[in-house]
Amino acid sequence: MQLIEKISKDLNVPNAMLVEALAKSRRLVKHIKIPKKDRTYRTVYQPSKKLKIIQYWLINNIYKNLAIHPAATAFQKDTSIKDNVYNHKKGKYFLKLDFKDFFPSIHFNDFMPIVSKWIIDSKSGFDDDEISKIIKSSCFYKEDVLPIGYPSSPIISNIVMYEFDSKITTELKDHNVFGKAVYTRYADDLTFSTNIKGACGKIKNIVHRTLQASGMPRLNLNNKKTRFVSASGGSSIITGLRICYDGHVTIHKKYKDKVRLLLSLYRKGKLSSKDVPVLKGHLAYIKYVDGTFYTKLQNVYFESISEIMNA
């Protein structure tokens, strides 16, 4: 296989090691069960280190050349959950939708035609059949579905969703119907904001029609998580962050109270050692998404925060 030889040469790893990794790709995968809020479990799949090597090569040499829509704000180098929320700061009415079983709904046959087209258009010289076999073995799991936990899954999902994101964005350009509508997608979370009352219902219909017209990937909305929200006289929660009525973005009150409690326990010497790294992660997140609240915490817990962040 010429491509395997190229990967072997590029990464300075034995050719035989990569061939073995592909041959055992569907067997040497760890299954990790993570509890969800509804008391069910989400299974995360961890591939072998050898398989990850192939995935990272594919990401850096092929996948990064494929189009991802600007509306996709998750898993992107220069975007984050904060950017996803800030795009909606000026919205008055919000629609929040959620895809059911997002990654497992994406199949190899949804992705490979995109890669094949790129091979032709870019004149890359890659053999379509060879690269098809490598991608199927290394980046997809049983029944050729996109697994949660593979390093390559996030970028593949964004690439596959390009056509959907483009169609939705195009549909929303009619300002007479949808107003100044904004659409972002953070993985399986879809957020729409507009300045026109009643437009969100029409936007939801557009999403349904677009999904029905598209055979690939076969995505379904989780209707239990559909939310229509108005910012007038209150605030809106988008991907865990709160947009206040004045456009200020902050963290949910319950999250703030939790972090204050953890800091109080730390200062009193009552926080377990295993929870200190968790608190450090919370503080790093707060510093990034809500600098104002982080400063307020420092005013009260300066010494404690300094110890934790410098540990």
What does this protein look like?
The protein has 311 residues and is of the alpha+beta class. It has 13 helices and 10 strands. Strands 3, 4, 5, 6 and 7 form a 5-stranded antiparallel sheet that branches. Strands 8-9-10 form a 3-stranded antiparallel sheet. A hairpin with a 4-residue loop joins strand 9 and strand 10. Helix 2 (15-23) packs across helix 3. The radius of gyration is 22 Å and the shape is globular. The termini are far apart. 29% of the residues are buried.
Please specify the SSE layout and strand pairing.
Layout lengths: L1 H10 L3 H9 L5 E7 L5 E7 L1 H13 L19 H6 L6 E8 L7 H15 L5 H12 L13 H8 L1 H10 L3 H4 L3 E5 L2 E6 L4 H15 L6 E2 L5 E4 L4 E4 L2 E4 L4 E3 L1 H15 L8 H14 L1 H20 L1
Antiparallel strand pairs: 1-2, 3-5, 3-6, 3-7, 4-5, 8-9, 9-10
Helix pairs in contact: 2-3, 5-6, 8-10, 11-12, 11-13, 12-13
